[in-house]
């Protein structure tokens, strides 16, 4: 179990829960992919040893952030997913990602990104169900779309709007709301409406996780 700050402070307690190294990255992966097996998490979190990953998952389960679920046949495997309490970290990571992006800067042309990164980036950049419009993104060789409020890899059928550009332009589009570097096709108002949702970072109605234990 991770060492506690032993302070009666919500910030200190939040750090007790998710402040250990790799904890928030586990949450990030489960936000992006919803359900992952232990082996999938280990593969995606390069550099995180199996002992550390197991310990972090155990702590996150104990605090009610993550749960294990057994999938029925034919999958018949155990996956990890966020609880409702864990899902409330989505806007927290959304704001943290924007904050970190300002000093990180856009990716360089030679920096490797995993195939399929764009749909995950859209989930991280925007709140859940940010638009009822169908918007397609074409960034270098990657294509992803918002369809019925969900970010999905691949092209959309009859999109209302298309956003096209390179990785640096996409970065500035999301972080700075800069439209100069991207090419827009279709209904631009739908794109502006999507960008406006990034201002929704305040959370409300948060409750304590059912069955969670204190430090």
Features:
Nonspecific Lipid-transfer Protein, Chain A, five-stranded mixed sheet, 215 residues, alpha+beta, two-stranded antiparallel sheet, single chain, 7 strands, Arc Repressor Mutant, subunit A
State the gist of this model.
By secondary structure, the chain is α+β, with helices and mostly antiparallel strands.
List the helices and strands and how they pair.
Blueprint: H1 10-18, H2 23-33, H3 38-44, H4 50-62, E1 66-70, E2 78-82, H5 84-87, H6 90-104, H7 117-125, E3 135-139, E4 142-147, E5 150-153, E6 161-165, H8 167-176, E7 183-186, H9 188-196
Parallel strand pairs: 3-6
Antiparallel strand pairs: 1-2, 3-4, 4-5, 6-7
Helix pairs in contact: 2-7
The CATH topology annotation of the largest domain reads as Nonspecific Lipid-transfer Protein, Chain A
- Helical stretch tally: 9
Strand order of the largest sheet: 5-4-3-6-7
User: Could you give the count of β-strands?
Assistant: 7
CATH class of the largest domain: Alpha Beta
């Amino acid at each position: 179990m991770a060492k506690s700050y032993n302070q009666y402070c919500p910030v200190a307690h939040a750090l007790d829960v998710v402040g250990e190294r790799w904890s928030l990255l586990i949450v990030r992966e489960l936000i992006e992919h919803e359900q992952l097996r232990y082996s999938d998490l280990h593969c995606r979190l390069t550099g995180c040893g199996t002992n550390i990953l197991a310990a972090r998952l155990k702590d996150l389960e104990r605090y009610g952030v993550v749960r294990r679920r057994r999938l029925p046949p034919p999958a018949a495997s155990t996956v990890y997913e966020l609880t409702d309490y864990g899902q409330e970290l989505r806007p927290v990571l959304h704001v943290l990602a924007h904050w970190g992006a300002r000093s990180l800067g856009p990716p360089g042309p030679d920096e490797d990104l995993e195939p399929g990164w764009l749909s995950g980036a859209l989930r991280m950049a925007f709140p859940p169900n940010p638009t009822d419009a169908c918007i397609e993104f074409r960034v270098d060789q990657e294509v992803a779309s918002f369809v019925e409020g969900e970010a999905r890899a691949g092209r959309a059928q009859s999109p209302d709007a298309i956003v096209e550009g390179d990785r640096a332009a996409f970065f500035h589009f999301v972080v700075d709301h800069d439209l100069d570097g991207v090419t827009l096709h279709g209904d631009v108002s739908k794109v502006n409406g999507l960008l406006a949702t990034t201002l929704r970072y305040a959370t409300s109605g948060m409750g304590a996780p059912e069955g969670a234990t204190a430090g």
